[in-house]
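Ticket opened by: R.M.
Priority: normal
Category: complex prediction / small molecule

The reporter submitted a protein together with phosphoric acid mono(formamide)ester and asked that the result be attached to this ticket for the collaborator who will pick it up next week. Submitted input follows.
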Amino acid sequence: MQQKKINTIKNFINLNEIDRDELYNILTFGLAAKNDKTGYSNLLKNKSLILLFDEPSTRTRISFELAINQLGGHCIFLDSSTSQLGRGESIKDTAKVLSRYVDGVIIRNASHKDLNEFANNSDCSVINALTNLSHPCQIMADLMTLHEHMGSIENINIAWVGDGNNVANTWIQASQIFGFNLNMAVPSQFSPNKNYLKLALDNKAKINITENINDVVSNADCIVTDTWVSMNDKETNKEEKIKILEQYQVNEKLFEKTPKHAVFLHCLPAHRGQEVTNEVIDSPRSLVYQQAENRLHIQKGILKYCFGI
Ligand code: CP
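Result attached by the on-call engineer:
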């Protein structure tokens, strides 16, 4: 396996490291794969991947495992806590060894720094399945969903409401790349990553940040939120954080201030009654299950991109 690829390895770690046209190709392939569920069954023939996760997952794990199987590849799930990583084996040694076995490693890791260290020591493709800083596979599925629903993602108005977490950071990168308007209502204590934001604004991204939720909804085509307490948040600050975010709940009253066509996205899992009410998440405006389904289809586009096939 050693002579494999090195110069041709493509990672999928952050959206802003990938060419805009390539991201559009991923999106287009996701749509094609959704409409032709059996048409690409040999695409990953003879390809093997590992899912190396150190945090829980329902959608990301299952959609990747199914996508790999449906494309004719082979995958192994490895829980880092029960591997030698959990006993202190170095990331470098783990990356060197695993990349001699497989063609790609899909990593969910609490530390973006560790993910980069793995990728820097790996001789195979590395895919970011969520870190403390970003969740690029999720946002590609979200964009696919909006593209299906609205016919285009050009010039749309996205309102992000709530915590400035890893998903919010990735919306910032997506806005920079695709050029849509991103209006964020986030309390100052929970602002998105400053470096991601600066980079996007330096690149003329159309992003506004306010603390006032009413400032972002009047022209919104889509309201997006996420759980207020992420997997990486410290246990001790939970109650205080929830209290501050209470005024950022997405509810019917908020939706009354949006245009009639506005839709709702949430990457799930949701904490019903906290960041979103049952009335909104179960309403016809909510695309959350379509969004979750699209994880499966877009993963196929991401895998195709990584292997240049
Ligand atoms: N949205 C998302 O990443 O879901 P999981 O945590 O279930 O993978």
